[in-house]
């Protein structure tokens, strides 16, 4: 799977590489909505932080996109209406939130 990590700090890259050793990973400090997508827009998944706007315009610029996740507790920077229209994005987005919540809970006990 080709995964793009946006608005990411250097220390996060090492952690992510260990978790996804067999995937094609791309890292940038750029925010998703500021990224020059003409260079690289064939991601299967993107991971963003709160400063990246995930709008309809941005989502539509990634023709292969199947999965969006945010490295934050909030997701008001993600256009959920567009995700709802593209059911796989919404389902996977919400599933990831559930998985992350379960993971955080199990790590806490």
Can you walk me through this structure?
There is one protein chain. The protein is of the alpha/beta class. The protein has a single domain (2-108), classed as Rossmann fold. The chain is built from 4 helices and 4 strands, in the order E-H-E-E-H-E-H-H. It has helices spanning 10-19, 56-60, 80-85, 87-108; strands at 2-5, 24-27, 45-48, 67-70. A 4-stranded parallel beta sheet has the order 2-1-3-4. The radius of gyration is 13 Å and the shape is globular. The mean pLDDT is 83.
Which key terms come to mind for this protein?
four-stranded parallel sheet; alpha/beta; Rossmann fold; 4 strands
What is the tally of helical segments?
Answer: 4
Percentage of residues in strands: 5-15%
CATH C-level class is Alpha Beta
Strands of the biggest beta sheet: in what spatial order? Answer: 2-1-3-4
CATH superfamily: NAD(P)-binding Rossmann-like Domain
Going by CATH, the architecture would be 3-Layer(aba) Sandwich
Please compute the radius of gyration using only Cα atoms: 13 Å
> Are there runs of 5+ residues with pLDDT below 50, and where?
none
Please state the overall shape, judged from the principal axes of the Cα atoms. Answer: globular
